[in-house]
Amino acid sequence: MRKIRCLNGYSWSCSGALDIHWLQPTVDACSLCIPILAAAQPKGDPTIMEVRIQPPLKHQGPVCRKILEDLPEWFGIESAREDYIREVDRLPTLVATRDGEAVGFMALYLHSPQSAELYVLGVLRRFHRQGIGRQLLVATEAWLKEQGLRFLQVKTLAPEAGDAGYDRTRHFYESAGFVPLEVFPELWDEHNPCLQMIKTL
Known about the structure:
Blueprint: E1 2-5, E2 11-16, E3 19-22, H1 29-32, E4 52-57, H2 61-68, H3 72-75, H4 78-88, E5 93-98, E6 101-110, E7 115-123, H5 132-146, E8 151-157, H6 164-175, E9 179-189, E10 192-200
């Protein structure tokens, strides 16, 4: 068990890269500070970029636009991208920053007191494969658990679509503990079968 300290000065205990616990519980601390999860990684790990995770806020449409426009392989349909941007502007959204620049975000639907949905996740292309998506996800799960939620789901493109980019996306979610629940062949359209994945918090 190691102690780490986030940028806002709160202390945490860490028993592993993805296992963060309050060491000094503080009233509303989760709304003031999300841990800098990169600090929990082994020092010197070149695959982990240290970022600051901002707590969930609304009105993050401009951040969403900047990042999704950098990812045409996933968000190349303009009308769909604009739908994401409008939705993100009204949803609680965590943002990862590096030297003051927004480099990633994760937006959430809170469906009920028990369950939430990861609505959309994006990281600037030049920061891919540096642990930022994983840090956003773990920070999101920590916040949701603090609110008493038990389940987190995500919808993504099903394997039947044969899309290499979304194969990587599914692998990311599987490695984070999500399991396939159901395929909806025509929820989006017949060419884009939807896979629902879920995990227990």
